[in-house]
Protein backbone atom coordinates (compact mmCIF):
# COMPACT_ATOMS: atom_id res chain seq x y z
CA UNK A 1 0.00 0.00 0.00
CA UNK A 2 1.36 3.40 -0.98
CA UNK A 3 0.55 6.41 1.15
CA UNK A 4 1.32 10.10 1.24
CA UNK A 5 1.01 12.90 3.76
CA UNK A 6 0.84 16.52 2.67
CA UNK A 7 1.03 19.10 5.43
CA UNK A 8 1.36 22.79 6.17
CA UNK A 9 3.20 23.79 9.33
CA UNK A 10 4.34 27.37 8.91
CA UNK A 11 4.29 28.59 12.52
CA UNK A 12 6.24 26.37 14.93
CA UNK A 13 6.40 23.04 13.12
CA UNK A 14 3.85 21.58 15.56
CA UNK A 15 1.92 19.94 12.74
CA UNK A 16 5.15 18.73 11.15
CA UNK A 17 5.99 16.76 14.30
CA UNK A 18 2.62 14.99 14.14
CA UNK A 19 2.94 14.47 10.37
CA UNK A 20 6.32 12.82 10.91
CA UNK A 21 4.93 10.46 13.56
CA UNK A 22 2.03 9.45 11.32
CA UNK A 23 4.35 8.99 8.34
CA UNK A 24 6.78 6.82 10.34
CA UNK A 25 3.99 4.63 11.66
CA UNK A 26 2.44 4.05 8.23
CA UNK A 27 5.68 4.08 6.25
CA UNK A 28 4.40 6.93 4.15
CA UNK A 29 5.90 9.61 1.99
CA UNK A 30 5.77 13.05 3.55
CA UNK A 31 5.66 16.41 1.76
CA UNK A 32 5.63 19.91 3.17
CA UNK A 33 3.21 21.90 1.04
CA UNK A 34 6.00 24.42 0.50
CA UNK A 35 7.84 21.82 -1.54
CA UNK A 36 4.90 20.73 -3.70
CA UNK A 37 5.22 21.64 -7.35
CA UNK A 38 3.74 19.02 -9.65
CA UNK A 39 1.96 16.45 -7.55
CA UNK A 40 0.76 13.21 -9.11
CA UNK A 41 -1.40 11.37 -6.59
CA UNK A 42 -2.58 8.65 -8.96
CA UNK A 43 -0.46 5.88 -7.42
CA UNK A 44 -1.37 6.51 -3.75
CA UNK A 45 -3.93 4.39 -1.91
CA UNK A 46 -4.15 6.66 1.13
CA UNK A 47 -3.51 10.40 1.43
CA UNK A 48 -3.36 12.39 4.66
CA UNK A 49 -3.82 16.15 4.76
CA UNK A 50 -2.64 18.16 7.77
CA UNK A 51 -2.38 21.79 8.77
CA UNK A 52 -1.86 24.12 11.66
CA UNK A 53 -4.91 26.29 12.32
CA UNK A 54 -4.42 29.97 11.52
CA UNK A 55 -7.27 32.36 12.34
CA UNK A 56 -9.87 29.60 12.55
CA UNK A 57 -8.79 27.93 9.31
CA UNK A 58 -6.37 25.51 7.74
CA UNK A 59 -3.79 27.14 5.50
CA UNK A 60 -5.34 28.49 2.27
CA UNK A 61 -2.41 26.79 0.49
CA UNK A 62 -3.88 23.40 1.38
CA UNK A 63 -7.34 24.30 0.10
CA UNK A 64 -5.81 25.58 -3.15
CA UNK A 65 -3.90 22.35 -3.66
CA UNK A 66 -6.87 20.12 -2.83
CA UNK A 67 -8.96 22.06 -5.30
CA UNK A 68 -6.61 20.92 -8.09
CA UNK A 69 -6.44 17.23 -7.14
CA UNK A 70 -8.50 14.42 -8.59
CA UNK A 71 -9.58 12.63 -5.41
CA UNK A 72 -12.41 10.46 -6.67
CA UNK A 73 -12.34 7.13 -4.83
CA UNK A 74 -9.20 8.01 -2.81
CA UNK A 75 -8.92 7.10 0.87
CA UNK A 76 -8.04 10.22 2.84
CA UNK A 77 -7.64 11.43 6.41
CA UNK A 78 -7.28 14.87 7.94
CA UNK A 79 -5.30 16.10 10.94
CA UNK A 80 -4.48 19.40 12.59
CA UNK A 81 -2.78 21.07 15.49
CA UNK A 82 -4.30 24.20 17.00
CA UNK A 83 -4.42 26.17 20.21
CA UNK A 84 -7.64 24.47 21.26
CA UNK A 85 -6.75 21.12 19.74
CA UNK A 86 -10.30 20.39 18.58
CA UNK A 87 -11.35 18.33 15.57
CA UNK A 88 -14.00 20.78 14.41
CA UNK A 89 -11.35 22.74 12.52
CA UNK A 90 -10.93 19.67 10.27
CA UNK A 91 -14.57 19.67 9.16
CA UNK A 92 -14.33 22.14 6.30
CA UNK A 93 -11.54 20.24 4.55
CA UNK A 94 -13.28 16.90 5.15
CA UNK A 95 -16.43 18.25 3.50
CA UNK A 96 -14.44 19.48 0.50
CA UNK A 97 -12.60 16.16 0.17
CA UNK A 98 -15.87 14.24 0.32
CA UNK A 99 -17.47 16.55 -2.21
CA UNK A 100 -14.63 15.57 -4.55
CA UNK A 101 -15.44 11.88 -4.14
CA UNK A 102 -12.76 11.01 -1.56
CA UNK A 103 -13.48 8.50 1.21
CA UNK A 104 -12.74 9.96 4.63
CA UNK A 105 -11.02 7.43 6.89
CA UNK A 106 -10.51 9.64 9.93
CA UNK A 107 -9.91 12.95 11.62
CA UNK A 108 -7.26 13.73 14.24
CA UNK A 109 -6.51 16.88 16.19
CA UNK A 110 -4.32 17.84 19.10
CA UNK A 111 -3.08 21.01 20.73
CA UNK A 112 -0.08 22.86 19.33
CA UNK A 113 1.65 25.51 21.39
CA UNK A 114 1.31 29.16 20.49
CA UNK A 115 2.02 32.56 21.98
CA UNK A 116 -1.15 34.65 21.91
CA UNK A 117 0.61 37.94 21.23
CA UNK A 118 2.00 36.50 17.99
CA UNK A 119 -1.42 37.01 16.43
CA UNK A 120 -3.99 38.59 18.74
CA UNK A 121 -4.59 41.01 21.61
CA UNK A 122 -7.65 39.15 22.87
CA UNK A 123 -7.31 38.12 26.54
CA UNK A 124 -9.02 34.75 26.05
CA UNK A 125 -6.18 33.68 23.79
CA UNK A 126 -3.65 34.35 26.57
CA UNK A 127 -5.29 31.59 28.62
CA UNK A 128 -5.54 29.29 25.60
CA UNK A 129 -1.92 29.99 24.80
CA UNK A 130 -0.83 29.03 28.29
CA UNK A 131 -2.84 25.80 28.16
CA UNK A 132 -1.24 24.91 24.84
CA UNK A 133 2.36 25.10 26.10
CA UNK A 134 4.32 21.87 25.74
CA UNK A 135 2.02 20.50 23.02
CA UNK A 136 2.20 18.40 21.04
CA UNK A 137 3.52 16.21 23.86
CA UNK A 138 4.16 12.50 24.44
CA UNK A 139 0.49 11.85 25.04
CA UNK A 140 -0.44 13.57 21.77
CA UNK A 141 2.15 11.41 20.00
CA UNK A 142 0.60 8.24 21.44
CA UNK A 143 -2.87 9.38 20.40
CA UNK A 144 -1.61 10.14 16.89
CA UNK A 145 -0.15 6.63 16.68
CA UNK A 146 -3.42 5.09 17.88
CA UNK A 147 -5.30 7.15 15.34
CA UNK A 148 -3.22 6.02 12.38
CA UNK A 149 -3.43 2.38 13.43
CA UNK A 150 -7.24 2.68 13.37
CA UNK A 151 -7.10 4.33 9.93
CA UNK A 152 -4.91 1.52 8.56
CA UNK A 153 -7.18 -1.13 10.12
CA UNK A 154 -10.17 0.41 8.37
CA UNK A 155 -8.73 -0.03 4.87
C1 LIG B 1 -1.53 33.52 13.01
C2 LIG B 1 -2.01 32.43 13.93
C3 LIG B 1 -3.37 32.23 14.10
C4 LIG B 1 -3.85 31.20 14.93
N1 LIG B 1 -5.20 31.04 15.04
C5 LIG B 1 -5.67 30.04 15.83
C6 LIG B 1 -7.08 29.82 15.94
O1 LIG B 1 -7.90 30.49 15.32
N2 LIG B 1 -7.51 28.82 16.74
C7 LIG B 1 -6.63 28.02 17.44
O2 LIG B 1 -7.10 27.14 18.16
N3 LIG B 1 -5.28 28.19 17.34
C8 LIG B 1 -4.78 29.17 16.55
N4 LIG B 1 -3.42 29.36 16.44
C9 LIG B 1 -2.49 28.41 17.09
C10 LIG B 1 -1.96 27.40 16.07
O3 LIG B 1 -3.04 26.71 15.45
C11 LIG B 1 -1.04 26.35 16.73
O4 LIG B 1 0.08 26.98 17.29
C12 LIG B 1 -0.61 25.30 15.70
O5 LIG B 1 -0.03 24.22 16.40
C13 LIG B 1 0.37 25.85 14.68
O6 LIG B 1 0.78 24.81 13.83
P1 LIG B 1 2.20 24.81 13.09
O7 LIG B 1 3.28 25.04 14.13
O8 LIG B 1 2.27 23.46 12.48
O9 LIG B 1 2.14 25.90 12.07
C14 LIG B 1 -2.92 30.37 15.63
C15 LIG B 1 -1.54 30.59 15.47
C16 LIG B 1 -1.09 31.60 14.63
C17 LIG B 1 0.40 31.83 14.47
Automatic annotation (TrEMBL):
Example GO molecular function: menaquinone-dependent protoporphyrinogen oxidase activity
Source domain of life: Bacteria
InterPro entries linked: Flavodoxin_dom, Flavoprotein-like_sf, Protoporphyrinogen_IX_DH
PANTHER family per the UniProt record, alphabetical: PROTOPORPHYRINOGEN IX DEHYDROGENASE [MENAQUINONE], PROTOPORPHYRINOGEN IX DEHYDROGENASE [QUINONE]
Flavodoxin domain boundaries: 4-87
Organism name: Clostridium sulfidigenes
Protein's name according to its UniProt entry: Flavodoxin
Gene Ontology biological process terms from the UniProt entry: heme biosynthetic process
Segments traversing the membrane: none
Pfam families noted in UniProt: Flavodoxin_5
Amino acid sequence: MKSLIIYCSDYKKNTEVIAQILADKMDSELINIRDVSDLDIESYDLIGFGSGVYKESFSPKLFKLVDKLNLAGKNVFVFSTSGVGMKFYNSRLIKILESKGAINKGSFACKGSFIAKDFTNKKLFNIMGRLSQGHPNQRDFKEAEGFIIRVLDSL
